């Protein structure tokens, strides 16, 4: 048994979709969540810059003695996951491979769409992961950076955004995809709008939720589960404004008493 916390990192509040799934599947685990809102968005940034930010956060989390790291950000996964897994002595879980595997299991016509940030799409990480599973997959990737902006602005329940999302996602109807990977952990907050845009016959894959299955398996494999049934601790940090993070996190996690701490990562 290990009472050490699980560390989560993301560029903003989007990773809370993964975090929420982890809370549901692992209710005894202590956690630390870091939102790098001071550098949001990650998508347009060069991969080397994203990797730099990620290592700053990881250094902070390692000082907190985490037992497992969840990179709850697709852009950060694409930029930094291999290096993290090679250099860290703890298990590291990204969101791209689990998302690709979930999509591969779900599709019936081998036509899979991917929506993500510019950085993730440019990296071709999803395309590579999917083609490694089945080279015959027909993949339609699309960068949708405005979706991140909508979520971070707190508009993920605003019905006036439906036309924007519908128009943006029209290429997936034209391509007849039957499975769409939401390749950014912000996007599940827009799930009803995305589903309406592509049609109910299209399966939506939440890559972050798929990653939690990997977390569960790794905790079991390395005997790292926390079986202490005392109230777990959950710490939240943001490099941005705590009031902004708290408002969105309280809404999404239904925790009105949630309060984050500001994290200063020092010089960039």
TrEMBL record:
Pfam families: Asp_Glu_race. GO terms for molecular function: glutamate racemase activity; identical protein binding. Substrate binds at residues 10-11, 42-43, 74-75, 185-186. It catalyses: L-glutamate = D-glutamate. Its EC number is 5.1.1.3. It comes from Candidatus Paralactobacillus gallistercoris. The active site is at residues 73, 184. Pathway: Cell wall biogenesis; peptidoglycan biosynthesis. This is Glutamate racemase. Transmembrane segments: none annotated. Provides the (R)-glutamate required for cell wall biosynthesis. GO terms for biological process: cell wall organization; peptidoglycan biosynthetic process; regulation of cell shape. PANTHER family: GLUTAMATE RACEMASE (PTHR21198). Belongs to the aspartate/glutamate racemases family. PROSITE patterns: ASP_GLU_RACEMASE_1, ASP_GLU_RACEMASE_2. It comes from the Bacteria.
């Amino acid at each position: 048994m290990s009472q050490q916390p699980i560390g989560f990192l993301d560029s903003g509040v989007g990773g809370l979709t993964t975090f929420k799934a982890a809370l549901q599947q692992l209710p005894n685990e202590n956690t630390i969540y870091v939102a790098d809102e001071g550098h949001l968005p990650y998508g347009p940034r060069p991969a080397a810059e994203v990797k730099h930010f990620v290592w700053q956060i990881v250094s902070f989390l390692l000082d907190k003695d985490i037992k497992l790291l969840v990179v709850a950000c697709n852009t950060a996964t694409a930029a930094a996951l291999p290096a993290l897994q090679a250099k860290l002595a703890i298990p590291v879980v990204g969101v791209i491979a689990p998302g690709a595997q979930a999509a591969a299991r779900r599709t019936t016509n081998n036509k899979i769409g991917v929506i993500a940030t510019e950085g993730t799409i440019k990296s071709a990480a999803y395309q590579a992961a999917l083609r490694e599973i089945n080279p015959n997959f027909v993949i339609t990737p699309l960068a949708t950076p405005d979706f991140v902006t909508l979520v971070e602005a707190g508009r993920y329940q605003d019905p006036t955004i439906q036309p924007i999302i519908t128009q943006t996602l029209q290429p997936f109807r034209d391509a007849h995809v039957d499975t769409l990977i939401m390749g950014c952990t912000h996007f599940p907050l827009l799930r009803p709008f995305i589903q309406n845009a592509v049609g109910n016959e299209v399966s939506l894959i939440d890559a972050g939720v798929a990653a939690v299955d990997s977390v569960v398996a790794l905790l079991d494999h390395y005997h790292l589960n926390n079986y202490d049934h005392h109230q777990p601790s959950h710490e939240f940090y943001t490099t941005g404004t705590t009031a902004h993070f708290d408002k969105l996190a309280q809404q999404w996690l239904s925790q009105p008493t949630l309060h984050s701490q500001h994290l200063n990562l020092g010089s960039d």
